[in-house]
Amino acid sequence: MLSNPILRTYLLIAGGLLLFAGAAIVLLKFVLKKNAEHAWKSFRGWLIMIPLIVGAVLLGRTATIIFLGVVAITGFTEFARATGLYRDWLITGLVYLGLAAVTVVTLISPPDDPRLVGWYGMFMALPVYVVAGILLMPILRDRTKGQLQLLALGMVGFIYIGWMFGHLAFLMNGRNGVGWLLFLLFSVPLCDVAAFTFGKIFGRHKLRPNISPNKTWEGSLGALAVGMALPWIFRFSLPGFGTRELLLAGLIVGAGSQLGDLSISVIKRDIGIKDMGALIEGHGGVLDRIDSLIYVAPLFFHMTRFFIGIE
Amino acid sequence: MEEWDYEPTPDFDRTPLDKLRVFPRHPDMLVYALRLALHALMRTWLRLYHRYRVFGREHLPRDQPFVLVANHGSHLDAIALLSALPLTAIQTAYPAAAKDYFFTTTTKVAFSAIVVNAMPFDRKENPRESIELCRDLLETPGHVLILFPEGTRSATGAMAAFKPGIGFLIAGTNIPVVPCHLDGAWRAWPKGAWFPRPRRLTLRVGVPMVFADVPADKEGAKRVAAELESAVRLLV
User: Using one digit for the tens of pLDDT, what is the confidence trace for A163-192?
Assistant: First the structure.
């Protein structure tokens, strides 16, 4: 894997960013004597997450897909616990099976064409089978009270966290899987950082005060601008992308990462909680970390597949 | 339209390790599944490696909470006793384990909570509170509490006297206590050995005893402990 020049470049960027962020925190804390507690916690989270994902990518396609599958299961568990769906073991169990199926069909070849990697047809058809299965549960138990809520939560849990996020893993089956995956894994958090920074410096007008009171239009536009620039900066990892694809990729990353963030916020505000879990110190739950990727990954996947093809 | 009523699980905002530390633990599907799979494996292991046999299984009460007490020779004991129960019962069977030993490091907590389904028993600072916790557990049908009244593993293989704690828990109640004797555990895995040896394990399950008419005081507790101890010794 290390022979892949794209991966090597990203490793250098990751090292550089971590060093830069670490130095910034040291500067903040010891030279400017500011309170850097929050930044430090967040930084420690990255010190764990980056080696994990880099390790998985270095181990190859199978390890990466399984790693992302475990992330999806963890994310769905948080969702199910926070919404209360977890109390229904039958539907939760079925969604777990669906999540496992997403990983399996991402790994195997279609039975009719063993040359292909990843069973794309079944990957796309899975929501049909899982939704059909979820709909079956109240019928099997002859229940009606509160069932629509459970059905809806099960479907959102599977389609949104399992299947939409699953596109990120399916990208690994493409001819430039590592490049696409790492592009998303780097540019999406960078957009988050840009939104935060622009908001801090220029923020005046609230973006969506009911959903996320700290977000501002200024931060959002700044993140969009950075997102539009990122595909050009990371062009080395997007071979075959022309102007049209680079523009679309920028739009998807710049706008999509914020929309993903807001979508999870809608769910959290409706439930009335702050974080989805407590797995990653300084970041909340897994779902709080991957919210943007969930939204961006499938859009990026289908844009790429439509214009330049995946295989 | 009426608003939806979300009810997050009570431990949703805890870290995985914290979830395992609290007791009673909230039911967790993934933990249950993992525990079930591991128990199926461990039962096979006991059968093949230790040629484990259980006599008197028919004495185990059905559809009511009960306490299993046994001699304590090794770390295999809790697993062996759990393996005498039906596989469907292990999620609500709780061996009491020393909090100061089994609920310290991450590995120990994970093992005690996931594999053994242990109840952290605070034998040093708060034994009374832990006994209260045991009593609460035994109010639910289907719950099984597994206790080793010697308080610690035997260093020599010989059984020590039962401590009166068990007596405080059940004197004056209708909860049946099942005395058991596990033979071979100390020889299979004595204190200090790093891996179990392939010695034969045999469990003898005795007839349930009830101490409803024993007064719940110090004397009564001692009497219960002594009676249970001799019941276990008789099973040898």
Answer: 999 999 999 999 999 999 999 999 999 999
3-class SS at B217? coil
Hunting for tokens 């996947």 — which residue is that?
Answer: A301
Both tokens of A53, joined, read 């994902």
Question: Cβ of A96 under 8 Å from any chain B Cβ?
Answer: yes
Q: Which residue has the higher pLDDT, B191 or A165?
A: A165
Residue of A nearest to B12 (CA): A81
Chain B contact probe: residue of A83, A94, A266 with most B CBs at under 10 A: A83
Residue type (1 letter), B73 = G
Q: How many residues does chain B have?
A: 236
Average predicted confidence (pLDDT) for chain A: 93
Cβ B9–A86 below 8 Å, yes or no? yes
Residue among B8, B14, B15 minimizing CB distance to A271:
B8
Token couple for A223: 């993140």
Q: Which residues of B204-233 are buried (b: 16+ CB within 10 A; e: fewer)?
A: bbbebbebeebeeeeebbbbbbebbbebbe
**How far is Cα A193 from Cα B42, in angstroms, rounded to an integer?**
49
Angle at B229 between CA B228 and CA B231, to 5 degrees: 60
What is the model's pLDDT at position A85?
94
For residue A12, CA distances in Å to A9, A15, A16, A54, B131 come to 5, 5, 6, 12, 57
**What DSSP state is assigned to residue B215?**
-
> Does any CB of chain A come closer than 8 Å to the CB of residue B107?
no
Give phi and psi for B14, each to the nearest 5.
-100, 155
Residues paired with residue A280 on neighbouring β-strands, in sequence order: A284
Cis status, amide bond into B24, omega within 30 of 0: yes
Average pLDDT in the B77-86 region?
A: 95
Q: Strand pairing of B202-205 and B177-183? A: antiparallel
Shortest distance between the Cα of A239 and any Cα of chain B, in A, equals 41
pTM for this prediction: 0.86
Taking the C-alpha atoms of residue B201 and residue B46, their distance in angstroms, rounded to an integer, is 8
Whether residue A258 lies within 8 A of chain B, CB to CB, comes out as no
Asked if residues A135 and A264 have their Cβ atoms less than 8 Å apart, the reply is no
Which amino acid appears at position A41 of this protein?
A: K
CB contact under 8 A, A82 and B4: no
Least Cα distance to A145 among B28, B9, B29, B2 occurs for B2
